[in-house]
Amino acid sequence: MRPEHVKAVARLHYESLTGLLRALGLPATRAFYTGCVKAPQVMAFVAMDGDRLRGFVCGALKARALKLQALAMNPFAVTAAAAYGVLRHPSSLRFLIDVARGEAAKHDPGGPELTYIAVDPAERRSGVGRQLMDAFTSAMRAAGVPAYELSVDHENHSADSFYKRLGFERVGSYREFGIDRRRYRLTLASK
Ligand SMILES: CC(C)(COP(=O)(O)OP(=O)(O)OC[C@H]1O[C@@H](n2cnc3c(N)ncnc32)[C@H](O)[C@@H]1OP(=O)(O)O)[C@@H](O)C(=O)NCCC(=O)NCCS
After folding, report:
1. DSSP state of 110
2. Of all helices (H) and strands (E), which one includes residue 60?
3. pTM beyond cutoff 0.85
4. Banded pLDDT at 153 (limits 50, 70, 90)
5. Which of 42, 39, 11 is nearest to 27 (CA)?
6. Residues 96, 20: contact at Cβ < 8 Å?
């Protein structure tokens, strides 16, 4: 993922995913990804068809690093866009309070994680998601991690089927931002 992909990635994120960034709005999501592409520990890939974004995936060796480094790389824009998001969508303030209190993300925030993946709705079920997962998993394997985790909304049956098909096992569940979420793990074959 490079700076020229940020606009399309942020839009696809905003239209496809739930959570804090979605609640804060598109400017905050764009500011987040502007920081994300500069962050040294972030693993982020796009699938392109020429100039058109088909899908993206991002995560980090330390789950918390993704969010902290994206913020550190673009602090003023993220803070300003988040404040604007709270003004426009006051209900998102509750999410920020949860984060500040440490009540979000009850799973281990220090471990390797795939944090966001989305495929353009017109491209789903044609193998783009699998390609993105392969790229991400190869990067994790090259970094030497034995396993990585991710979270899925309880209601997201498509993602549930997708991850099970790709060999993930369910390892727990928790509640974040008022949503029940499932935690999945992919164990990487040792060589
Ligand atoms: C989840 C998502 C990334 C999957 O991407 P995709 O490009 O449609 O997935 P693929 O076509 O590569 O599918 C890979 C495998 O998963 C299976 N699969 C994908 N979606 C499925 C669904 N809705 N139901 C059942 N199986 C599914 C496919 O059949 C395929 O298996 P196969 O290769 O053995 O045939 C995509 O649906 C998406 O962007 N959803 C919205 C955002 C989202 O929910 N992200 C995850 C948040 S945790």
Report:
1. T
2. strand 52-60
3. yes
4. very high
5. 11
6. yes
Task: Report the sign of the C-alpha dihedral through residues 84, 79, 48, 120, in that order.
Answer: negative
In short, whether 79's Cβ falls inside 6 Å of ligand 1 is no
Tell me what the mean pLDDT of segment 116-138 comes to: 97
Is the distance from the beta carbon of residue 122 to the nearest atom of ligand 1 less than 6 Å? no
- For ligand 1, the distance from its centroid to the CA atom of residue 159, given in whole angstroms, is 6
184: tokens are: 């999945």
Distance in Å, CA 64 to ligand 1 centroid: 25
Q: What is the distance of C-alpha 78 from the center of its chain?
A: 16
Which residues 6+ apart lie within 8 Å of 20 measured at CB?
92, 95, 96, 99, 104, 177
Query: What's the gap in Å between 101 CA and the centre of ligand 1?
Result: 33
Range in 47-56, 85-94, 95-104, 128-137 the model is least confident about: 95-104
